[in-house]
Amino acid sequence: MGQPLLRRVGVVLALAVGLVLASGLGGAVAGARARPAARTGSGGTVRFALPPAVTPTYIYPLYPFADYTYANQSFFEALMYRPLYAFGDNGTPLLNENQSLAQPPVFSNGGRTVTIVLKPWRWSDGRPLTSRDVQFWENLLVANKANFGPYVPHNYPDNVVRAAYPAPNRVVLTFNRAYNHFWLLYNQLSQITPMPQHVWDRTRVGGPVGNFDETRAGAVAVNTFLTHQATQLSTYGRNPLWDVVDGAWRLSAYTPATGFSVFTPNPAYSGAGRAHISRFEEVPFTSDAAEFNALRAGTIDYGYLPLFDLSQRGYFTHHGYRVTPWPLWAFDNITLNFGNARLRPILSQLYVRQALQMLVDQPSYISHIFHGYAVPTYGPVPQQPVTPFISPQERTNPYPFSIAAARRLLAAHGWRVAPNGRTVCRAPGGGAHHCGAGIAAGTALSFAFEYPSGSVAATQEAQAYKSAASAAGIQIQLASLPLNTINSQGDSCPGAGCKYALLSFGLVGWDYGPDYFPSGGEIIGTGASGNSGQYSNPTNDQNILATHVDAGLGPLYRYQDFVETQLPLLFFPTPVFQISVIRNTLQGIGPQSPLTTISPQTWTVSG
Predict the structure, then answer these.
(1) Where are the domains of the chain?
(2) What pLDDT, in 10s, does the model give residues 363-384?
(3) What confidence tens digit (pLDDT) does each residue in 143-165 have?
(4) Which helix (H) or strand (E) holds 448?
(5) 44, 37 contact by CB (below 8 A)
(6) Which among 192, 252, 365, 443 could bridge 425 via Cys, Cβ 3.0 to 4.6 Å?
(7) pLDDT tens, 284-295?
(8) Residue 114: strand pairing partners
(9) What is the model's pLDDT at position 494?
(10) CA dist., res. 340 & res. 149, Å (int)
């Protein structure tokens, strides 16, 4: 595969960035001017707090991997440029037919052909959105796919053998074989974003609009032009290219140095209900403490409560706010380094992985570290929100926390267990009651565990895990490193040169988007670029392939049940995206989307 479709969150979430800064330190970054929010009737301004140090930086929907972030996708681009199919419905990650630009796809030709009928929709300049805009996307993507963040070789668009546009409202795609309908819709068609061909199909500033995209060379030239324009952040608020949108919002101001963004309603929006508020501001912050201060000052309408400030919940509920968790369609995990030649014989033993999982005290972490704002994780499909995608088996924990059970398991396989000491192999080699092939006598159970710095909660988890492991006779060496270093380790660290055994990418390892069907090939499929631990298992690979090509949810259940029991990853509890603090006069939000998408066009300010 090319790039991971399961977006690595890449930030330590607002919930748990526990840098306990003095209240006088930090502040809203430049451009986020403090001003009271409007309070009367329809219209008004709503100010939305971005997570700390997270800002939108890319506007063009055909985004490279470096800009493949939820800040760009969910909080920025999607407000202006709608995907063909919208996901996130009533607090679930499921298809949102009401917000989609097209009717649900119709399958024919033995499942190989998909017919897509566009809804009546218009661009903000009044021109209709047609199949030509989908064709424009398709042509540019095919010619520039290596530069598209979610691209995976052999998947979309490579698996499309014919694309036809027989009518202005009709798109017909024929694939190289029949695929699972869930996978095709949620993980392939989900990537399509129609683009305004009548405005963007040009190769230079001031140049004519043509049909350049209809040749490969022309499609490359157009994409090069648009990509360059997208890097000119200082022009975002005035570039006429970005002024033609099909979403509910237009970008009217943008501060490049900070990411402070101002949106105003698109009066020609074709979707269900036009915006009620007259101005929507996304306010960036340098730290949790800065955001908390702005929230206390009353200059934020929709913000978040840092974990270390949970004692302030009562203050906000008594001062006109409601406090509610924002769940995430994601799961947390610890990567096991099967690529390390020294560690591979040990980590390849299922009983070792089972013992390591038994030392994760999920109930305690949820209660004492996350104060209840997390859910248990037993496998690669999230427990919450509840969806048809989770199997009955994965709803229960096959390896509940038990230091005693971990000790017994190791002792039964030839280890001399020394609680709070050095456990070594006393019965080397394969066979029953032996340590395993390739494990020499005297080998110690000792692992390096690296995790991102800057999070009190992540540190507490790592320290709690080390303590439990020590009680079971397993030595853990902790190393807290900058997130960029962690990402580099996971993405490019080769084989035995990687000294770590366990690697954490933060409090949420992966979230699903824009591939929402949790089939998992991007993270644990053999050779996948998101497979940081270099796990490889032929049964797992066959299970993943079956989720792509076989009908129904049965293949997904088999895949996740295998992963849950075989443990190619260690599973840790998954915290919520944030603990939202929302002014009571701000209504119409509904259940917060687990895909981190927002729909401010449905919001109203009253009182």
Answers:
(1) 331-575
(2) 999 999 999 999 999 999 999 9
(3) 999 999 888 888 999 999 999 99
(4) strand 446-452
(5) yes
(6) 443
(7) 998 888 999 999
(8) 107, 173
(9) 55
(10) 28
DSSP symbols for 1-44? --S-SEE---S--TTT------TTS--BPTT----PPP-SSS--
Q: If 0-12 CB within 10 Å is exposed, 13-18 middle and 19+ buried, where does residue 411 land?
A: middle
- Extract the tokens encoding 5: 């479709």
Nearest to 141, CA basis, from 177, 190, 191, 85 = 191
CB 370, CB 16: distance < 8 Å: yes
pLDDT for 25 beyond 60? no
Structure tokens at 488: 């580099």
For the record, the structure tokens of 413 come out as 């396989």
- Which residues in 59-77 are b (16+ Cβ under 10 Å) and which e? bbbbbbbebbbbbbbbbbb
Strands, sheet with 113-117, edge to edge from the N-terminal-most edge strand: 106-108, 113-117, 170-175, 160-167
> For 425-481, how does the pLDDT look when each residue is reduced to its tens digit (9 = 90+)?
999 999 899 999 999 999 999 999 999 887 888 999 999 999 999 999 999 999 998
CB 351 within 8 A of CB 409: yes
Angle at CA of residue 581, ends 575 and 585, nearest 5°: 145
Q: Is the pLDDT of residue 3 over 80?
A: no
SS (H, E, C) 367-380: HHHCCCCEECCCCC
The dihedral sign for the CA sequence 178, 393, 355, 8: positive
Q: What residue has token string 């949420």?
A: 508
Give the chain's mean pLDDT.
90
Residue 574 has which token pair? Answer: 């998954």
The one-letter code for the residue type at 2 is G
Closest CA to 503 of 534, 457, 545: 534
pTM of structure:
0.86
Task: Tell how strand 92-96 and strand 86-89 pair up.
Answer: antiparallel
The CATH H-level (homologous superfamily) assignment of domain 331-575 is Dipeptide-binding Protein; Domain 3 (3.10.105.10)
